[in-house]
Task: structure prediction
Amino acid sequence: MIGKGDHCGVFGIGLSPRAAQITHHALYALQHRGQESAGIVAGGEGGVEIHRGMGLVSEVFDADVLGRLARGTDLAVGHVRYSTTGESSLANAQPLLVRYRRGHLALAHNGNLVNAPALREELEREGSIFQTTLDTEVVAHLVARLSDNGPEQALATSLARVRGGYALVALADRKLIGVRDPSGIRPLALGRLGKAFVLASESCAFDTVGAEFLREVGPGEMVVVEGDRLRSLPALPPGRPALCVFEFIYIARPDSNLHGLNVHAVRKELGRRLARAHPVAADIVTGVPDSSISAASGYAEAAGIPYEMGLVKNRYIGRTFIQPCQEARDLGVTLKLNPLRKVVDGRRVVLVDDSIVRGTTSRHIVRLLREAGAREVHLRIASPPYRWPCYFGIDTSSREELVAAERDVEEVRRLVGADSLAYLNLEDLVDGVKAGGLCLACFDGDYPVPVFDAAGGR
Amino acid sequence: MIGKGDHCGVFGIGLSPRAAQITHHALYALQHRGQESAGIVAGGEGGVEIHRGMGLVSEVFDADVLGRLARGTDLAVGHVRYSTTGESSLANAQPLLVRYRRGHLALAHNGNLVNAPALREELEREGSIFQTTLDTEVVAHLVARLSDNGPEQALATSLARVRGGYALVALADRKLIGVRDPSGIRPLALGRLGKAFVLASESCAFDTVGAEFLREVGPGEMVVVEGDRLRSLPALPPGRPALCVFEFIYIARPDSNLHGLNVHAVRKELGRRLARAHPVAADIVTGVPDSSISAASGYAEAAGIPYEMGLVKNRYIGRTFIQPCQEARDLGVTLKLNPLRKVVDGRRVVLVDDSIVRGTTSRHIVRLLREAGAREVHLRIASPPYRWPCYFGIDTSSREELVAAERDVEEVRRLVGADSLAYLNLEDLVDGVKAGGLCLACFDGDYPVPVFDAAGGR
Amino acid sequence: MIGKGDHCGVFGIGLSPRAAQITHHALYALQHRGQESAGIVAGGEGGVEIHRGMGLVSEVFDADVLGRLARGTDLAVGHVRYSTTGESSLANAQPLLVRYRRGHLALAHNGNLVNAPALREELEREGSIFQTTLDTEVVAHLVARLSDNGPEQALATSLARVRGGYALVALADRKLIGVRDPSGIRPLALGRLGKAFVLASESCAFDTVGAEFLREVGPGEMVVVEGDRLRSLPALPPGRPALCVFEFIYIARPDSNLHGLNVHAVRKELGRRLARAHPVAADIVTGVPDSSISAASGYAEAAGIPYEMGLVKNRYIGRTFIQPCQEARDLGVTLKLNPLRKVVDGRRVVLVDDSIVRGTTSRHIVRLLREAGAREVHLRIASPPYRWPCYFGIDTSSREELVAAERDVEEVRRLVGADSLAYLNLEDLVDGVKAGGLCLACFDGDYPVPVFDAAGGR
Amino acid sequence: MIGKGDHCGVFGIGLSPRAAQITHHALYALQHRGQESAGIVAGGEGGVEIHRGMGLVSEVFDADVLGRLARGTDLAVGHVRYSTTGESSLANAQPLLVRYRRGHLALAHNGNLVNAPALREELEREGSIFQTTLDTEVVAHLVARLSDNGPEQALATSLARVRGGYALVALADRKLIGVRDPSGIRPLALGRLGKAFVLASESCAFDTVGAEFLREVGPGEMVVVEGDRLRSLPALPPGRPALCVFEFIYIARPDSNLHGLNVHAVRKELGRRLARAHPVAADIVTGVPDSSISAASGYAEAAGIPYEMGLVKNRYIGRTFIQPCQEARDLGVTLKLNPLRKVVDGRRVVLVDDSIVRGTTSRHIVRLLREAGAREVHLRIASPPYRWPCYFGIDTSSREELVAAERDVEEVRRLVGADSLAYLNLEDLVDGVKAGGLCLACFDGDYPVPVFDAAGGR
Result:
């Protein structure tokens, strides 16, 4: 099932009497990475406690649950998850917790393992019984079958058999472990809160809990926290460095930093470059809230056109019960976004968005602006055409669903109904981000890790 | 009980087979006016259905509930509620639905009735049994005791005994009724969706459901929808027109229009005037998200200082379980707001906020910015000092809690820890809003309706 | 709506720091009187707490709820309810708690007020707003409209306007009040637990909580508990004493005593008299569990035929979700009762039941026994033919539904399919119970209280 | 962990479009075997559905759940569970459902596997990850590791490695499978409902669903239902026949038959023999409801002393929330049992109980009877002294907790406070039951299956 990946956010903390509470707070900061389910595993001398549930962090945890998680524990890992597939059940919520002969192993995982189906088939043939449909569980079974010295060694040996993009935070044997795939496709940061080490998908989680950012975990690196000591192991032979560029474009929170670069600042720069490469005569610039506000303000600044609030987003829609028909999905966008007629009416509008995936949302917003009186709508996209599916943790369905996969810019323009359409050039993206070692596969099809094996399967 | 008022949002629709669903969607658009409870009463030939619950609209309603509400109904009223008092129980959720000898009466109410305690005492002395502590229930009992011709007449007669600020939407006898207090303190708009008339606290609800704005209900006016006909009755002798200015400053959504004025545009203008009256040498302007973004961008524009995203708001905090100690409340703000160190560090920052009520939030944000490296923090408030409690539907505690009640600007500045502090002048507020007939009592103490009766009580 | 009455159980306790917990335990002992809903109101210096829910006592209360009810309270009233009408909603659960000008009034009520509809109409005409469809609420509104000295006087004055059979336990103004209708149709006992007075529908509740039985509250008597003092008031002019004989026959638990008589012993005596009056040649005697076991053992003893366990009852059926079709209702009996083939096969069986109301259950059990191999089934009923609807608190539908209303014994026998059928004679019932002053209206139609008013209404 | 066993009830049905509903009804009939959790797995062409929950059958299932289970399914297995250990969590509810390479395997199990810990350790050493702490899961992992032809063969091969007492009902590959341990320690009956075969722990489940009893599954026999065909396989080499005698004494419902013997009739005979062996001068005989009523009536008959209802049991206590202190546990018995003072007062009472395990309940009941006025209390136990822990599915804690393990009859008498105490002789038990091949280990320590292995472990 190509493209079954997930956005996710992971967090871990080693040796703090407030480990569970801090993880709870950190998950709030990572909530934008997944709103479907949330979970925490906390461990102490006496064992582990787990709580997972469907919904937002605020819905999954209450005082009773946190009290139970916090009692006698000093290590914790947490997870928030997003999935658009049918398998969005509680059984698939993370962290995954398994009991095997060496004790407990909790895994919180962001990313996607491309050869998980093949490994699973092999493990089942040897008698393993799987509890979930998560690719993460393959790792657990590989670990359970090894008789290595300690969980970190078993985890490293197991991950050597796995191919994909991932950031993994694990809790085992009173140890907190963090590890990234050999290309570092998914991000993972290391920080410190007092004496406790912390790991998080994004640095904004550190700000929220008052932790200090130390550095990013490197591609193929494993960090092991025991007590107040940290060890770094070269767990996996490093591959071509390839941090997912979409973290800069869309996924990460604007107040997070990646590769030492502030996400908001990067997006603003992309907007500026977009304006310079694709100017247009217009009265106002507006962005699709919230992810495109930074790029739109950069565009406005460079173009010398006033930035205006042309669309208001309803903060409370989230997980609305919406019937799964097209009419309802259209309505979903209406509930979420409202154009400001007084701002838009009679104006030539530059609408900046971060990306176009399927094109349906763009078409809808262009129509909304026109209905609100916009004289012209010029769509500017702060990234290149999205042409190739992601296999490393972002949900993009098959190639057929990508509107730009087989269409040129003019065809996409007609489809979304804009007066003009322009994308950021790939060079501007690379220069604008200013970080080397990016995965650009969704734009250029050059995957940093082989997606298909020799036999054409995965 | 001074200041026990509530923000609230009300909606009503007359004669549509989709009345319940439309009301459900409209409540999403009004959710910013109250996140504590939500409710809908839907009526049809066969009777009425009610559903109310604590929490967000998305939590209170699901497919089953909506199916039940929708079956056989063609009229509906809805309500979202916010309250900071202890009486935030389900029993006090609205709409209030009572059965009396003439049938059913559902009331959804935004505002506050200042003489409700006295009327309640009188009614109880005569044997009435109250089910809630809502002031709205006084109206129901007054209606139940009248033998007038039809509910609209009974409602008018009852409201003549009531003093306060309110927008009321009622459902009775196959009729939808909307009425505003004689000064029009709380807003209420009239619109049309196909053949059905709709009523809403704010026009943004019309946009969300695809309705067309017709006009505002006038001060003291009652509109009665029967079938597809609308009658307007001069229900109450008009008083001094006095629309709550705080709707423009803080409450209303930026995409709503009031008195024909777009709220976002008004706020931007207030920001411009604030910049002209109270300039300061600085590197960036930033606003407290979300309510102050419009004013901040106006300030930046008029001051010629770049607007920057200095603070990021966590969209998912909402109704976090937070223990009621000061430490936890401080943490609450940290969870909600994160400064962008890369944006703020080493800069002189103009921080624009819409108002200061108690001062605790401002003090906290100033501290956050300083910790993120801001060299100077200049606080600019896009409204005058908030000095007088509101008795007409905004929750402001007693006068002692208002930080500006007995302090001058310099004292407030010291308290919040800013390098400089300036408020918008009252004249700039009045000129900037450009609407006549405003209630400015929170700034000047001149209440449009007598708050205390002759005997000094209420 | 004739026959909309309810079985119910009531309990009250005055001035004990464990009032709520004791009431909780007592409701378990009264659970056989109502399994539909349960509730407790507990009062203290600081106010009242209420909790009510649908289902069994064990489902409605948990540790959290009881903790809340117990905190700071020292008075409590409790209620369990049974209703077969559609109005079995939470809103109709008891105790009813209303706030009126004098404070709180909690009412827990067993019985039925025959003129409640007329009184309700009158009260609504005068402007009262009802919250429930309970006849009990009429009493609350009558009390709220009086300006008498204290709640006990107001309650007495109000009850003087009411006609029916009831046992009422109330909590008002730090007082616990118990009162019975002028004929004492529904039972109410007074006991003592340490210094605290207790009131209960049945004495078995006293055994369960360790209280001592003092006496029964008399017809028309009101007892008022204040602190550790008890006052008795002749609240209502006494009528013809008429304790419901069905309490002896079916409703009360066998370990309860009424009029100083043990219910099990009375039922056994009725069985003996039944055997003497209606002997039959048979191999075994068996009873329908649980209510007819006592009478059946009496029959066996007097007849000299061995008592055998011919039917086993499933203890866990209770509130099974059963679809409301006839097939499902038949199945309901199969799930509940299983004949012991090895006991019954080839035998002539005397089947003793306490009463026949509609006849459907009897027909079903006779068929079950025949299918299990019984050679003959002789049905013996330990009460006379049930011919007249009850208006005082037992649910018996209209007269048409009573199988014996218009049929003679032979017709009923044919209908239920027994080889022979005999009822207890009315004289044997009266002599067997040995208590004077019984209501026998269901057998002889002689109602102790006028059911219809002069105008033919109620 | 010695004595961690469970009572449980199992049911299965092959190929009926109403498989799920019938299983639901059957579980009501087996509810006395376990009230802690309940579950159903239903299978069809399209896959399997599962629902399990904590609590009674009536709490775990509702119309929605049953609708989902019934849709498209025609095979089902069900389970009710009782456990007194801490591991009474939802994760341990049955049926256990696992997905392995051959598809689904659902297991519902009554009994205990004595070498499960050793097998589990071995399997975990080889990399298996367990999901529960159920011994049943060992069987699932053994099956998953085999490459045999079909699930019945894999199950047989797996069970050959297992030691203990069990009745297992499984659903795999469109097949319903039932199997009993080589000694037939736990019961399992085979029946037919129309064309569908059914399996149940007790025959009373067949009566409830209208099925016909065919025969018992033999020791070591496996029956496999495919479509409307039944195959019998000699899956395991038969051991010494040893049906648990406690099924006759306490566990089974009186209307069930085991080895062709009615349980009620057996208990009555044991009571008669008890009376003949241990007569006493007394006024009444009474039994502890419900399990001892049969034996008590047999005692009364043989002794010529009238049987009386001396204790009334509250049907509604069940799973009361009771704090885990001794005082509360004492109260638990008071809530459950109430003596009939009028029956007991001044009398010499023979109290018949089925067994004494820890002695605390007996002591409590003796005290209750004395407080109710009993002049003498003679305790008669319808089974021999319970001296040895059970390892095959009945929860008896360690030997130290068995009151008779190290005490003679006089010491036990003093401890429970009776005037006299006598147990049924072992010979009378064996002669009274009249069935050969019983497990009497709890009385004589002669276990039919080795409990400890050569190394002294299990």
Chain D has a mean pLDDT of 90. Chain D has 16 helices and 23 strands. The first strand of chain D starts at residue 8 and ends at 14.
